[in-house]
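Sanity check. The docking grid for molybdenum atom depends on where the pocket ends up, so I'm generating a full predicted complex first rather than guessing from homology. Inputs follow.
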Amino acid sequence: MDGAPVGRRVFLGLLGAGAAGILWGSNAQRWLEQRVGPYLAKDGTGLSALLPIGRFRIYSVTGSMPHRGHGEYRLRVSGLVDRPLALSYPELRAMPPTGLTRDFQCVTGWRVFEVQWKGVRLADVLERAGVQESAKALRFRSFDGTYTESLTLKQARRDDVLVAYELEGEELSDAHGGPVRLYVAPMYGYKSIKWLDRIEVTDEVVPGYWEERGYDVDAWIGRSNNRDDNAP
Ligand SMILES: Nc1nc2c(c(=O)[nH]1)N[C@H]1C(S)=C(S)[C@@H](COP(=O)(O)O)O[C@H]1N2
Ligand SMILES: [Mo]
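Predicted complex below; grid placement will be based on this.
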């Protein structure tokens, strides 16, 4: 854990700043996310960090806020592929974009209505890498060094699964997992890994960070984790 420890006073200060940000509008929101994001508060468990910024809560299991600039960013695709990739940010941007507007739901109960996402379809990235016959699943890694996620190949090829670089019409902030994160629209938020670093194409599903801690690997909204009450 290399996040800065946050004292109660600072935390309350951030809450106040967050509330003010809502009043100032989206520019202030963005400023807040970039500037005060590194001082994320840890909750009682020490596992997750959250702050009410904008309409989202900001989660980071490491309690830190990794940063990678557009210039140095690469999305690596390796494993059971014909052409391993290291896609730069401009290369991703040059691929055909897809926009999606959907509710964003965390399995713990909070929900953000009608969030606008933009990115490239994960299916297109996989197509570019040339997935081999024996492949069955994907393993995702974050440059926070800890978080992982998984999808079956069938899930990954859905039209509503994006390698996302924009949120609400703006480049993804560090807080929301920029410059590039996964966005798995039909599943709970924990599948949407932030600070996406690497995709490994594998022959079996390897459960991700929260899945090793009890959450369902198939995280369909409304159909998993005994949360049918949240069905859309
Ligand atoms: N790397 C990383 N990705 C992550 C998480 C995390 O802690 N670390 N939390 C997940 C969970 S549980 C949710 S609900 C969403 C929250 O996205 P947000 O922080 O942009 O609101 O990110 C998901 N992706
Ligand atoms: Mo979540």
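Relevant for the grid: The chain has a mean pLDDT of 82.
Also worth noting: The CA atoms of residues 139 and 150 lie 5 Å apart.
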